[in-house]
Backbone:
């Protein structure tokens, strides 16, 4: 009986699937019956998430019997990772579907939109709880295809069609990579059951076939999460309704990092995959973080922000610090959902509550003092709490990223004509942020200790690549802290190129023929 309990997870996607079917009969404006059904299905998801959390807490990892042949088919796997992400998706589903009810009120195809949204959320939920590579790949593809219907909700808008076309091409490349990786894993381990694959991978060693498989998984994740140079579609899908952007940026993009986390035990057997993640994710994080600062559009800036966050997560996964990546994923999801759903009010809120800040001095010495204080807070609290990030270069790299973030928090107070009280408040806030990081990271590690491998010592190549990426972050943040603006012609050209994303999106347009009929 216990082996059938995970089937409870299917109650949520099943209810959402029913909503999708009902929308075929009520595709028009204000479909009251469908609206009520959508709300009920969303709250069923929350209830299911609570039940699954109790099941895993009391029984540990649970897997249903296989429905298939020769080790391939459908099964449900519940562990701390799948339940955590399932709960996140269910909660986001409640908020986004509730918002959609008001946002699309009176739209000529409101019912169709709710149905497509429900189908997309259902696909993500099935992906998260998949226990077999066959079901995982099927849900992965279904998530992409259902999202495609949302991106084309207004097919009369040329910009929406162009962005959807680029997304479709990138997604199909990612799908092909994942299918290839799944085929190799099945051949190597003789089964499609994820639990059996993870057990064998943890006890085995790598070979050329597994090196190829892990590399393909990494490439699939990079394509799924809109990493450079295929990021352009992500900042061009704003022609879709805002709830689609919220679901895309808060949920579906995360499928890339989740793929790496789900197959983390297997990823430990490859080196090329870590290189791809550190280089691809790290460069995208740096590139998108710089470009977003030049964007005048709130939603476009949020799009580049999402690409940067995905890059950070993939970078951290490449370093093997999976609990920190999971923590980042959950935090980013809720932050980005709120950011998009409230984006329409950002300008009004900013005008209604202007914040006066002291004039910046733009002193290199004070910028260095800000960095020193940030490093002192981080390492001081690490020692006081018993953490030793210096013993593990991967954890040290994650800590360095936090220090750079704290520098940005402290610099406006230290590098200004403000008061000592303002500096003290900034330092206090930096302490709170650092304590929250250590507490949440340790909580994530303990929660996911059985679902994710323990952070390991990266090879020298990965350490070197991560150091280069961190140097780039430090340079970019230093320029931002000092507030340097383009004055010379060369700097102005660099600014224009940055604002246009180094023209990578235009080149991608030409390669795939975005605007050809």
Residues:
């Amino acid at each position: 009986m216990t082996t059938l309990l995970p089937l409870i997870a299917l109650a949520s996607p099943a209810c959402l699937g029913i909503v999708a079917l009902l929308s075929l009969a009520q595709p028009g404006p204000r479909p009251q019956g469908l609206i009520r059904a959508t709300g009920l299905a969303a709250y069923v998801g929350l209830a299911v998430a609570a039940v699954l959390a109790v099941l895993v807490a009391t029984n540990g990892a649970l897997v249903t019997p296989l429905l298939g042949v020769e080790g391939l088919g459908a099964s449900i796997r519940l562990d701390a990772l799948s339940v955590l992400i399932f709960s996140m998706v269910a909660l986001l589903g409640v908020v986004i579907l509730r918002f959609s009810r008001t946002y699309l009120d009176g739209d000529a195809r409101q019912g169709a939109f709710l149905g497509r949204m429900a189908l997309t959320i259902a696909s993500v939920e099935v992906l998260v709880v998949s226990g077999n590579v066959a079901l995982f790949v099927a849900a992965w593809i279904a998530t992409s295809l259902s999202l495609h219907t949302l991106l084309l909700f207004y097919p009369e808008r040329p910009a929406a069609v162009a962005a959807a076309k680029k997304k479709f091409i990138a997604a199909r490349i990612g799908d092909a990579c994942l299918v290839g990786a799944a085929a190799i894993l099945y051949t190597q381990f003789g089964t499609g059951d994820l639990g059996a694959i993870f057990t064998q991978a943890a006890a085995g060693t790598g070979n050329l076939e597994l090196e190829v498989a892990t590399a393909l998984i990494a490439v699939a994740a990079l394509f799924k999460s809109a990493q450079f140079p295929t990021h352009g579609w992500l900042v061009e899908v704003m022609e879709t309704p805002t709830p689609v952007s919220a679901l895309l940026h808060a949920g579906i993009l995360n499928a890339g990092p989740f793929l790496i986390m789900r197959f983390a035990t297997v990823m430990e057997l490859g080196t090329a995959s870590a290189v791809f993640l550190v280089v691809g994710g790290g460069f995208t994080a740096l590139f998108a973080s710089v470009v977003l600062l030049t964007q005048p559009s709130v939603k476009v800036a949020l799009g580049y922000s999402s690409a940067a966050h995905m890059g950070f997560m993939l970078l951290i996964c490449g370093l093997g610090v999976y609990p920190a990546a999971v923590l980042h994923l959950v935090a980013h999801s809720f932050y980005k959902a709120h950011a998009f759903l409230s984006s329409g009010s950002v300008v009004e809120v900013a005008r209604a509550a202007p914040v006066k800040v002291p004039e910046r001095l733009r002193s290199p010495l004070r910028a260095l003092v800000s960095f020193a204080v940030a490093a002192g807070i981080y390492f001081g609290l690490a020692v006081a709490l018993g953490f030793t990030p210096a013993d593990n270069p991967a954890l040290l790299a994650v800590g360095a990223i936090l220090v750079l973030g704290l520098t940005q928090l402290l610099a406006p107070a230290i590098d200004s004509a403000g008061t000592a009280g303002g500096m003290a408040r900034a330092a206090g806030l930096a302490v709170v942020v650092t304590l929250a990081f250590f507490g949440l990271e340790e909580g994530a590690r303990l929660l996911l200790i059985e679902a994710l491998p323990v952070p390991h010592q990266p090879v020298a190549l990965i350490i070197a690549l991560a150091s280069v990426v961190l140097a780039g972050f430090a340079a970019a943040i230093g320029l931002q802290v000092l507030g340097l603006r383009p004055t010379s012609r060369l700097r102005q050209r660099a600014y224009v190129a940055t604002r246009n994303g180094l023209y990578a999106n235009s080149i991608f347009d030409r390669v795939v023929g975005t605007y050809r009929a």
